Amino acid sequence: PRLRPALAELAAPAPWRMRWARHRGDVSPPWPGPVAVLGATAGGPSAGLLLVGDRTGTVRLLRESDATSEGRLAHRVQGRITALAPTADGTVLLLDERGRLHTVRGTAPRPPYLERLTDAVSTTLSRHPGTALAAIAGSVVVGDRLGSVHAFGVTGLHQAAPHSGRVTAVTAVESETPFVCSGGADGTVRLWTPGRAPVPEPLAERRAPVVALHAAPAPGGPLVAAAWADGRVELIPAEGGRRRAFRPGPAVRAVAVTATGALLVGTDESLVCLEPYGS
Q1: Sign of dihedral through CA atoms 138, 160, 130, 222?
Q2: Domain count, the chain
Q3: Is residue 229, in this structure, part of any structural domain at all?
Q4: Is residue 12 in some structural domain?
Q5: Could you tell me if residue 261 is inside a domain?
Q6: pLDDT at 1 over 90
Q7: 105-154, pLDDT tens digit by residue?
Q8: 86: left (phi over 0), alpha (psi -120 to 50) or beta
């Protein structure tokens, strides 16, 4: 009891407050296992859920508010999942370790145009494997090993080559001006609005490959979470503002931003939910 106020005083200047954390060995609520991929639902029938994939390909569903288990995603993908992308209609898109697309349908019926879109992307990736995956309404975004990002949409295909080397992560945000954010082995995080040229200056850059990326609309504007192979995580306002950094210690495997602006960081040992603190 005497340590709690002392630790609180030492933590007062920190730019974070912990909402919850789950660590290896936790029993109640249970630790969800080593984190390989993360996803957060923003709306639709599964709003408020986190998707936490482990190294074996199992994807668990957790409540965003307190990490309580809500079961597992019913899918038949064999082997490791390298990326996942929940969509507004409850469908979840998965990218396997061979770079191929899989669709796990939700309970709501999908519009025929979305079925045609995902079928077209799946056919393309069977010939040209992807390395990263994201989705927003009416679009599926894929990165490749040559540094290019491809936005497959109902109105056509847009492409850009913002990276030198492999695209390691992509994310997309449904906002007033929808945009794509990509990270690469070159250490850069870049913004791109399909149909326009990529923003010339990187949103962030380090001398280490980007290992995970996720963005979401938040009350104060879109937020981008990025993690690098050197262990640093940053939460970046896409439209400018204070950047916050965090180092969990173990290597970061996945990050996500929730609709409330909280940051999720997944490692082999833990899953932590942090809230930005201070102006």
Answers
A1: negative
A2: 1
A3: yes
A4: no
A5: yes
A6: no
A7: 887 788 888 899 999 999 999 999 999 999 988 899 999 999 999 999 98
A8: beta
